[in-house]
Structure formats: structure tokens, C-alpha cells
Amino acid sequence: MEMSEAGSPEGLPRRTVLRYGAAAAGAAGLARPARAFAGGRPGRRVAVLGAGVGGLTVAHELAERGFEVTVHERRSVAGGKARSLYVPHSGTGGRRDLPGEHGHRGVFGFYHNLPDTLRRIPLPGGGSVFGNLTAVSWIELARSGGRPAIPVPVRSGRLHLANADLLVASVAGLLAESLRLPPGEAAFFAKQAVMLFTSCTERRFGQWEHVGWWDYIEAARMSQDYQRLLGGGVQLLQALRPPTASARTSGQGLESIVYDLVGRGSDGPADRIFDAPTSEAWIDPWVAHLRGLGVRFAFGQHVEHLELHSGRIAAAHVRTAQGGSERIDADWFVAAVPSERATTLWNGALRAADPRLAAMDGLQQVWCNGVQFFLRHPAPVIAGHIVHVDSPWKLVSISQSRLWRAPFARTWGDGRAQESLSVDVSDWETPGILYGRPARQCTRAEIAREVWAQMQQHLGRTSPHGLDDGLLHSWYVDEAITDAPGGGTRNDDLYLLNTTGSWDLRPDAATAVPNLFLAADYVRTYSNVDFTSMETANEAGRRAAAAVLVAAGATEAPAVRTFKGYEAPEFAAAKAEDRTRWQRGLPHVLDSRRRAPGRGAIPTSPQLTT
Question: Which range is the signal sequence, renumbered to this chain (predicted)?
């Protein structure tokens, strides 16, 4: 199979100055004027280090409250991992460069903080960015070896939540019917899930945070299908990798999905994506709106050092795109860079000032990047997320352009590509099927060929029922992945992995340094989602902004809202009973293994407002 990459892998994606044309000016005109709640007083200058979702969120919240915000970003564009990736020099005839994503993009119904922000970003001509979301109706669990796929409708249904026994029976029936698991395995998993749903907060953090999901669901003694579907194969939520994640974190994600599917506490459909490339539908209008609020952006600035003096951050020092250095002075500093970059900023003085920063050294990062396949004709697959259950590289794909409003061939590329198939590669350590090597030991071209072959194993090789080689126009691997001189690849964009016990390693948004705050997806969050996601980054930005208001004494400014996750009232009595059992040192009433409760650190949640 001959495959060619669209554009040059060495060059940066071509950026249009204003991808939305006049959108920036229009959004600026629609923007609410910044209210000078802190006006006239010193202490309003804020330096936000990083323009990902967390950094843009804290800039948004503080600019609305009259603070003078400058966002410093090492790249030439904003958005971090949420930004779209454009294939350099691929647009011809007035069309835009071919678009792709960091991986599959999902805005789930159990998100609440992020949708609130989307509603507050105006679009030229009226409406908001929230209106650019479109529902995904199906998720397919594709299987290899000629086994039939398992389509799962993503719409509200009915589960009995009246009591634990009925819920166990309902979940077991759903698993047995939809995932075709043996009834005994389905019933056991359902019981374990309900045990998490009815555990008190103290047990969740004190016990289940320190038990691995694989062990919790006893995957080692179960069938291969059970292991792949529930113990390691389903990677729609990229941060929840069952072999390494805690039972608390994985259970939290499962609980959120279940409530979403039964229409409890959801902010819209269970699964949504944007109806255009993410940068065009969200990031570009957001940046335009922030500029309208007075936020300044300094691109091409890589923060290298935080200067601590008399217990406070005196300045940040950055390296510019031209190779020079600059000093950043501000009253308040918000570090909104990923965890692996943040820890390089924590020098000895900062670690001594706040040991919570030093604890971050124990956080783990992995590779999780996307590959885009541009097709000559629409692929014969569902218009939704496809989980390639048996793929060694744990692939999730979506024919995203089918859900976009603009006609693909007339809008992007050279007019011959009809569709964009976006694929997330979650496992870069397991050998593949073509070259027998892990993804990180392959070249970019080998990664593309391997991913295509693994998808063909699940979706077939020939049309009209699969991925025919003739469909392929070109491919593009995430620009963060570059070929290494000695073979294999390097990755400039790592992904925080939620692991067993990692809650104890994560800091809060406010640090012990009184003018240093944190706004990224590694920050502790207290809603119904605390695993790596756009939602947690958004909540972290909100919490950082709230902490700045407190430190600045801006008591007259409106409070920064955060949203508490849904809790089923039917389980309140069960949780109260479990709290009593926890305090007496007893296991959960559904714990058939009669495990002795642990005594891990129990979080004290900051005040949540809704």
C-alpha cells in the first residue's frame, strides 16, 4: 500500500492570521466590556503562562472582572492540545489547509464547567460557541477477526435507580445485552460498579483511590472480552486507562457516563463534537473574545524560570522565538503549562516554599496523539466514535467531517479529499501488527501505515463494507510527533495519566506562594470529573481565577462559578450507611472480598457553587 503524507512534516502548520476572517472584529464588538471591579487599585496585572484551555479560562474569568491579563504561549497559536492541527501548504484554489485534531474530540454531557464557558463566547452575527456543538448519536465497539461490531446508541434510556439491587440488575442486563458479555461476568461487574456508586466520599478517596481498576474488577480471572471491553480495551476517555487507573477515578468516569445515559444531571447530549475544526469553531472565536475584553497575547514565549524573592514570585523569565530572553513582571502569576513542563519550573526555592509542587514529580505522562487520514470518498463507517477494541495501539476514531457544517472538499485541501478520519493512538508501548514495534519506535510513515492496518482489521479492507486502500488521499501525524535521528520518534506533547494514588500527588490551584497559581488538568478538581480532560482544565482555570480574586482582595467582584457533579438522591441513604461502616473500619456492604478499608488522605473540597 502506497501512502503519502499531506504536506511537509518538518514545517509548522500554516496559520492564517485570522481564520475566521472578520470574526475577530465581530466578536470584539459583541464582547461585554470588562467591568472594573478591581479598577483604580494596584495589583491587577496577571501573567498567564500557557494558552491551553486552563490558561484561556483563567484569562477569561479575570478579564471579565477588570484584571489586566497577558497570556504568554510558547507556540504561535492558542489552544494547547485542544487546538486543531493544519497540514502545511495543503490548501489550494482558495481553500483552507487540511484540518485535523490532536485526537478524537468529545464534549460529553456530564461536562458542566466547559459548556458554561462555551455559552459565554459570542459569535459574529449572534449566538455563541456552544451552538457549534453537534450531537453524536452512536458509539461503535469494532472487533477484529470478523467478529460483529457492537453499536451502542448514545441517547437517554431508563435504568432503575431506586435501590442498589435494581441498579445491579439493570447494569448487568445492559452489559450482557449490549456488550455480549457472559451473564455471570456482567453481573459481577455491575455489582462492583454499584459498590462504587454507593461508596461514601471517605471510602472513595481513602480506599478506592489506592486500588487499581484492573484488580477492583478482578479482570485477571475473567474472559478476554471482559478484559478488553472493561479492563483495558475501551479508551474513549483517554485518561482512564484501566490497567493503571485507580478504582475511584475509573468509577467516577463510569458513574458520570451512566447518569448521562439516563438523563440525570446532563448538560445536553451524552456525546458531542464541534461542527467544524475545533480551532475554527471554538479557539479562534475565544481568542477574539478575550482580545475584546482587553487580554493581550504574547506568542513564541517559552517560560524557563520563575524568580522567587521574599516569598513571592518577582518575575518570570521567558525565551523568545528569536532566541532572546525577556523578563515578565506582574502582580499575579498563573502557571498553565502541562505537568511535565511545570515541574521543570519548580526550582529548589519553590519546592521548599511549597512541598506540594515537589510531589508533582511523581505524576506520570504518556503519549496520546492523533493521526488524520484524508479520504477520497466517505468511509463506510458510522458517523460517530469507533472504539477499535482489539487494536494493540488502542485506537479510537471518528469520521468527524461528516458532522461538520461546511462541505469538506470545497472548504479544505485540494478539492480531492472528501472526508477527514481522525484517530487517537493511546498505546505507544505495545508492538503493532505490521512492524512488530511499539508506535514510539516507528517513524511517522510507519505509524500511519500501522494505524491504517489496525483499523482495517476492525472495519475490513474492501469497500463497501470497510476501508479500501483506494480511499486514502493522504495522512498527517500530529505535529508533536517528529522522527528521531536515531530511529523512532519524539513527542513534544505528553499527556497526563491518572494513576492509582495520583490524587495525593496533585496540587490545588492556589499554592503556598501567595502570588502563584496553577491552571492545568493536573490540578485537583472537585466536580464530577477530575481525570485529564478539557473539563478539568476549564475547572482548574476557574479555581485559579477564584484564588486570584481572594488574594487580590477583590471582594466586590462576582464569584467565579464552578459546578458540582450530579449525585443520585436515591443513593444518599446507602452512602450514609457506608460512611458509618467506614468510620467503624468495616468494608462496604457489597464488598464480597471483605477488604479492609485503607486510610488514605481524604480531600477537603473548596466551596462549590452552582
Answer: none
With respect to residue 39, please indicate whether it lies within any of the assigned structural domains: no
CA distance 570 to 312: 48
How many angstroms separate the CA atoms of 298 and 270, rounded? 36
Buried/exposed 97-113: b ≥16 CB within 10 Å, e otherwise: bbbbbbbbbbbbbbbbb
Residues 357 and 372 in one domain: no
Hey, what amino acid is at 361?
D
- Closest by alpha carbon to 499, among 201, 196, 207, 212? 212
Quote the DSSP letter at residue 95: P
Examine the domain organization and report whether 451 and 528 are in the same domain. no
Q: pLDDT tens digits, residue range 278-310?
A: 999 999 999 999 999 999 999 999 999 999 999
- Whole-angstrom distance, CA of residue 225 vs CA of residue 288: 48
Question: 464, 491, 518: which is the final residue of a domain?
Answer: 491
Q: How far apart are CA 574 and CA 163, in angstroms?
A: 9
Indicate whether 3 belongs to any domain: no
Taken in order 85, 89, 91, 94, the sign of the CA dihedral is: positive
Contacts of 348 (CB under 8 A, 6+ apart): none
| Residues 97 and 183 reside in one and the same domain | no
Q: Which tens digits make up the pLDDT trace of 420-450?
A: 999 999 899 999 999 999 999 999 999 999 9
- Same domain, yes or no: 376 and 487: yes
Q: At what angle do helices 284-292 and 53-63 cross, to 10 degrees?
A: 30
DSSP output for 310-325:
TTEEEEEEEEETTS-E
Question: 235 and 163, same structural domain?
Answer: yes
- Assigned domain for 34 exists: no
The DSSP 8-state label assigned to residue 96 in this structure reads B
| Alpha helix stretches (DSSP H) within 19-94 | 23-30, 53-63
Q: How far apart are CA 483 and CA 549, in angstroms?
A: 45
Residue range 6-57, pLDDT digits in tens: 754 333 333 333 333 333 333 333 334 334 344 335 589 999 999 999 999 9
Closest CA to 528 of 269, 339, 263, 251: 251
Q: To 5 degrees, how large is the angle CA 91–CA 401–CA 5?
A: 45
SS3 196: helix
**Based on the domain organization, do 374 and 472 belong to the same domain?**
yes
All residues at 6 or more sequence positions from 573 whose CB lies less than 8 Å from its CB, including other chains = none
Number of domains in the chain: 3
Residue type, position 90, single letter: S
Residue 241 sits in the same domain as residue 306 = no
CA distance 374 to 53: 27
Same domain, 204 and 309: no
**What is the full DSSP assignment across 207-226?**
TGGGSBHHHHTTGGGS-HHH
Looking up residue 129, the CATH number of its domain turns out to be: 3.30.9
| Cβ count near 267 (within 10 Å) | 21
Whether pTM exceeds 0.85: yes
Q: Which three cell numbers stand for residue 471?
A: 480511499
Surface-to-core class of residue 541, CB atoms within 10 Å of its CB (0-12 exposed, 13-18 middle, 19+ buried): buried
Note down the domain range covering 211: 157-262+569-583
How far does CA 193 lie from the centroid of its chain? Answer: 23
Cα–Cα distance for residue pair 249/521, rounded to 1 Å: 14
